[in-house]
Amino acid sequence: MPATATAVVAFNPDDVPTTPEGEIGRRIRRLRGEKIHQRELAFSAEITRAKLSKIESGCDGDISKEIGILKKIAEELGCTIEYLLTGK
């Protein structure tokens, strides 16, 4: 029996359709980039790294209601809450 080839497809989270929460997370991740580590941003926002990871992946429920967290993240990343929520 001949061997079968298995295709390996790289996963790119930016290719996945998202909810509004996912868009907020993408904006945070994009702004954070390589400038600041997740644990440093989480510390500044007074949340756990795991919570920030969930926010960035869009798996944290309705983060738009957690204005205090978004305010701290926006301040640390040098943007506005409006940008995080709307992209504008």
Descriptive account of the structure:
The protein is an all-alpha fold. The chain has a single domain, classed as 434 Repressor (Amino-terminal Domain). Helices cover 53% and strands 0% of the residues. The protein is built from five helices and no strands. It has helices at residues 20-32, 38-45, 49-57, 67-77, 81-86. Helix 2 (38-45) packs across helix 3 and helix 2 (38-45) packs across helix 4. The longest helix is centred in the N-terminal third of the chain and has 13 residues, at 20-32. The protein is globular, with a radius of gyration of 16 Å. The termini are far apart.
Residue stretches low in confidence (pLDDT < 50, at least 5 long) are none
From the coordinates shown, what is the CATH architecture? Orthogonal Bundle
Biggest beta sheet summary:
none
Shape: globular
Question: How many alpha or pi helices?
Answer: 5
Kindly report the oligomeric state of this protein: single chain
Instruction: Write down the Rg.
Output: 16 Å
Structural class comes to mainly alpha
Distance between the termini: 58 Å
List SSEs in N-to-C order: HHHHH
Per CATH, what is the topology?
434 Repressor (Amino-terminal Domain)
**Mean pLDDT across all residues, rounded?**
81
Number of strands: 0
Specify the helix fraction band: 40-55%
Name the CATH superfamily assignment. Answer: lambda repressor-like DNA-binding domains
Residues in β-strands, percent: under 5%
For the record, the count of structural domains works out to 1
| The first-level CATH class name | Mainly Alpha
